Write the structure tokens for this entry.
Amino acid sequence: MRFLKILIPLVLLLCCFSCRTATSNNIHYWMEDNGKIKVLTSIEMLNDLVIAIGKGHVDSIALIVGNLDPHSYELVKGDDEKFARADLVVCNGLGLEHGASLMQTINSHKNCLLVGEEIFNKAPEKIIIINKTVDPHIWTDVSLWSESIDFIVERLSKLDPMHAEEFKQNGSLLKKDLLDTHQDLLNEMKAIPSEKRYLVTSHDAFNYFAKAYLSERNEGDWHSRFSAPEGLAPDGQLSSSNIKSIIEHLKKFNIHVLFPESNVSQSSIKKIIHAGNQMGLELTIATEPLYGDAMIVEEGMGGKNYINMMKHNAETIKKYLNL
């Protein structure tokens, strides 16, 4: 028993060290001059697209990883070197990456693609605006996110014309995968009775998801399908009027489960649960988090992490809303 008490912490320590080393080695490899296009993406959801399109001709890494918040991310030591090394920077835009130092560096880079801005310029009606603020969470609608692909293909082709046709073919295959996933999510969500298809999460990251997958076809007031105590950028601030508004929404649509998000504090929804249960609403928190601003990353998923993230969200929502 004493041996195990010593061995287990040692194994955990070695695992942590190896993880840090692997990450460090990936950065060092990415910084090397090996003839490949060096791409730096702001978020991991974009990194998946770039890797799937560029394959062996591109080295791509994400700046904001794990459970870090893209809304408030500020540059840390070593980030300047990444931007300087990158042949192409790919960001979401639409106000997502609004940390002062990050936004300034993005705007000053010689070759930066803002996929959300490109989609907005092409089809402004597809972009959601909440209280005069643009909602940047376009990746929660898989069909809308697939529209980023053509812009990435175009930029990579300009940097490496020799492999432009390959980028185009990879992009077409990826778009098919995403559109197939979109249809799967539609089918899965429509299996939930319409009167149960209402979602409440920690912050306003699922408007596009609600519009695409929870609402009825041509439903005018799709906004009622989704609500959250915190705004488009989670800040942990919750007033009594916020709590009252959410509780009224829960009562109106007979909602009993609230969904936490992987990288957002549960304090806000716990306050709502407490207040609601004092009123006899019988509210609970889902034990499995949704992935809004942070992407689920598991071994063996390769370039399919984004798709698995969206499938996880749909399966979790269906599981709890069908109770």
